[in-house]
Amino acid sequence: MKLLVCTRKTTNGVQFRGRIQLQLLSAANTLPLAFFFSTQSTPNQQHEEGEESIINRAFWTRKIHTLCIGDRNVDEALRLLDKIRLRGYSPDSLNLSSIIHALCDANRFSEAHHRFLLSIASQCVPDQRTCNVLIARLLDSRTPHATLHVIRSLIAVRPEFVPSLINYNRLMHHLCLFSQPTEAHGLFFDMRRRGHCPNAISYTTLMDGYCKIGEEASAWKLFDEMLQSGLVPNSLTYSVLLKGVLCKRDVERGRELMRQLWQKMMDENDPSVNNAAFANLIDSLCKEGFFQEVFMIAEDMPQGKCVSEEFAYGQMIDSLCRCGRNHGASRIVYVMRKRGFVPSLVSYNNIIHGLSKEGGCLRAYQLLKEGVEFGFIMSEHTYKVLLEALCRDSDICKAREVMRLVLNREGVDRTRIYNIYLRAVCLVNNPTELLNVLVFMLQTQCQPDVITLNTVINGFCKMGRVEEALKVLDDMVMGKFCAPDSVTYTTVICGLLNLGRTEEALDVLQQVMPKKGFKPGVVTYNAVLRGLFKLQQANVAMEVFNRMVGDGIAADSVTYSIIIDGLFKSDQIDEAKRFWDDVIWPSRVHDNFVYAAILKGLCLSGKLNEACDFLYELVDCGVSPNVVSYNILIDHACKLGLKKGAYTILREMRKNGLTPDAVTWRILHKLHGIAGR
Hints:
Elements: E1 2-6, E2 19-23, H1 43-51, H2 57-70, H3 74-86, H4 93-105, H5 109-121, H6 128-139, H7 144-157, H8 165-177, H9 181-193, H10 200-212, H11 216-228, H12 235-247, H13 251-267, H14 271-287, H15 291-300, H16 309-322, H17 326-338, H18 345-357, H19 361-371, H20 380-392, H21 396-407, H22 414-425, H23 431-443, H24 450-462, H25 466-478, H26 486-498, H27 502-515, H28 522-534, H29 538-550, H30 557-569, H31 573-587, H32 592-604, H33 608-620, H34 627-639, H35 643-655, H36 662-676
Antiparallel strand pairs: 1-2
Helix pairs in contact: 2-3, 2-4, 4-5, 4-6, 5-7, 6-8, 7-8, 8-9, 8-10, 9-10, 10-11, 10-12, 12-13, 12-14, 14-16, 15-17, 16-17, 16-18, 17-18, 18-19, 18-20, 20-21, 20-22, 21-22, 22-23, 22-24, 23-24, 24-25, 24-26, 25-26, 26-27, 26-28, 27-28, 28-29, 28-30, 30-31, 30-32, 32-33, 32-34, 33-34, ...
């Protein structure tokens, strides 16, 4: 039995009908709810479980533990636990521990928190040591508020429970990461009330939290309190205070504190603390823009032997690269090389990658050539980025040299290296280079694969050289190269449509592909539809769509987005509305891209009210459009100067549970700028 529910109609033009089909199943066809959540066990497992007595706790504990830890099948363990509970089994702390550990291993932290809370509510609470172990696992989720809720629930049931000092410190650290040092300070006081004596880590964590939000004075108060309590600050503590001082741009005080930090490093016995302090200092200097100080440290190395020089240089390179100062990072490399050190392959690769992306491809090329001397091996992704940067600068010679350097390595997939190079060459109008590489591959006994040839054909099509692309396709069909695939034909069709050669493109689609044994798929049809609509041949596009449906090819949301967008741009507004009503909505194949296409089309057609009605009807039908759909309406309302209308749409967005994003506020800011002028 089916129930059809119709929503309200729009006020203007052709009506949009929102319909929801609800399938009502008879009781005979209804499946138990547990079917959808339980993993089915084998007959042997069911027989074994059925025979074992429920009072044999050792058997069930071992069984659950094996499923969780050995088989990594926590769902089966939960199913078994639910089943034996119906037979009278009471889970204990060992069962809970196995389940929580397994859920955390599977990154299902939310469920792990929930299971622990359910156990606490049912009075199944492990001993203090086990509770602290489980809390430590839950802290790996970095969701401090959820873990804090578990701790408070434990204390409510067992007031004598005290979280360990390490767990307190970790929880405070997580709260500080969320810029909530005040709440972390509350935990600090709670820790004291429960008998713990804060250590240097506790104070340093809180100081770091206050420095991150700019409350340097609170950090210094904690520092004084730390000294009064008899604790000795370590080098990491001083580096945290330095972060706060640098944030306030107090250079002189920062330099004085830095001198104290170097002295403190001399007295520190734990090298890991010095490494953390040095990394924190360099990171703070780079974030605040004190790059000259970083270069001075690289030259003078005031920390001496307290921090390994390789680690120190590596940290400088990493921090500079993360701040987008790749040229500065390359300067650190030269300092290293001058002193006889070799940068790590990861750091060196990071510099070349960053330089290639920010327009420093010539410097990146120079570093690559120098890196060959100490055995540097560039990653494949960096190779791709560098080639594309050089080709965009029309420096094909250097790009070709980079390819040869990579090909000289042993064990590389030569065809793949050529393919990446060809894809980069497609970015420039250089068909000769495409053919030269293809010939060079054949001369060096490197057989081009279908990806190689598809890349070459795509390059020719992008350059408007469809005849050359067709020649390569003919060679593939004749057996001179590997056989073409559906991607090959789709690429040729796109190239023909880009030049307006519609009849030839449709001939390839409807005659050539079936003749060669290829049935065009939805991707091919989408490419054809997009090309036809760009040529303003909407009627031909709709004929192709009808043929596609007739051939049994199911349309996807991309298909519908292309058609809606094309119909609106062809001024066939009523046809677009009917297509939504009669085809898209009944198909249930529609997403935010389809909604955005309809909303843009209505807005550009001057029908803002209809667009708003359409969006609200979607919500009434149970659809949840994303923030992009609302932004389209707000943007058009702002362009029309409808301030009240824009804020009405904003209120609707919030009412439906969406939060405005940066684009929303930028649109509204422009509206106020227009109103001000």
